[in-house]
Task: structure prediction
Amino acid sequence: MATVPVGTALPTASPHPDRALDTRPSVRRRRWSRRRAANAVYWGACAAALAGVAAPVVWVLAGVVNSGLRDWHWSVLTTQTVGTGGGLLNAIAGTLVIVVGVAVIVGIVGIAGGIYLAEFCPEGRGGLLRGGSEILSGAPSIVLGYVGYVTLVVRFHWGFSLAAALAVLSVMVVPYVVKATEVSLRSVPTAYRDGSEALGMPSGYALRRVVLRPALPGIVTGLIVAMAIAVGETAPLLYTAGWSNNLPTAHLFHAPIAYLTYPVWTFYNQPYASAHRLAAVAALLLVVLALLMIVVSRIIVAVTQRHSETSSAPH
Result:
C-alpha cells in the first residue's frame, strides 16, 4: 500500500466538479460580465420604480408651489380672513394651536401606551390591545369626524370648538405613536435591561435612564408623523372645529377655530379670484409647514441618536 508523506494536502471533492474544472480566464470574465449585467438591470428596475412613485408627487408639489408663489403676498401672514379674501393669520395661528395640542395629548397618551405594551403588558392582553390599535388606525378620518360631531358637538353640547377637534385628531393619530414607541422600545437590546437589573436598578429608573434613551429617535419620529397627519386632515376638522375669521381664543368649548386646510378645501370651489388665491397660498403654507416638521424631526432624531449612543457607550 502506498503511503502519503506527512504534510501533503489531500485532494478534496468539489461540490461543483464542473465549475472547479472550468477555471479559464475567459469563462471567469463571462461570468463576471453576466453578474454585472444582472446587477445593472436590477438597479435600473429599482430606479424606474422609484421614479414612477416620485414623479407624481414631485409634479403635484411643483404645481402647488408654483400656484402659491404666483399668488403670494406677505400680507397673508399679518391679516385675518375677511369673507373669501384678506389673509390667513387666523388659519395659521389656529393650525399651530391644533398641532401643539395634538402633540401634547398624543405625546402623553401614545408614549405611555407604547411603554405599557412593550414593558408591562401581559402577553394575553397585549394582542387584544394591539389589534384594537390597528383597527383604530385604519378607520377613515371622515368617519371619526362624523362620530365626533354626533357625540361631542351635538350630544355633549361642546359645539364647534378646539376641544372637539383635539379629541378627534388625537384619537385618530394616537395608534401611530403607540406603535412607534412599542417598536422602538422592543428594538433596545435585552442586555440593557438585564444589566440594569443586575446592578440593582429599580425598573422605573432603568426605564428612564437606560431603555428610553436609545429608543428616543423612533419615538420622536412617530410623534412627528402623527403631527404631520393631524396638520393635513380636513374632514375631522370640518365636523368638529368649524371655521372662524378670528384668532384662536382661550375657550375650549363653543369657540370655532380656523385652520389652513379649510381654505384649501372650501375656497377653491368659490367663484372668486381672491378665494382661489387664498387656497393656493394656504396649500403652499401647508407644504412649507410639513417640510419644516420633517427638518425639525431629523434634527431631533440626530441629536437624540448621538445622545443615546454617547450615554449607552461603556465607560
About this structure: DSSP finds eleven helices and two strands in the chain. The domain at 91-263 is CATH 1.10.3720.10 (MetI-like fold). The radius of gyration is 29 Å. Confidence is low (pLDDT under 50) at residues 309-315.
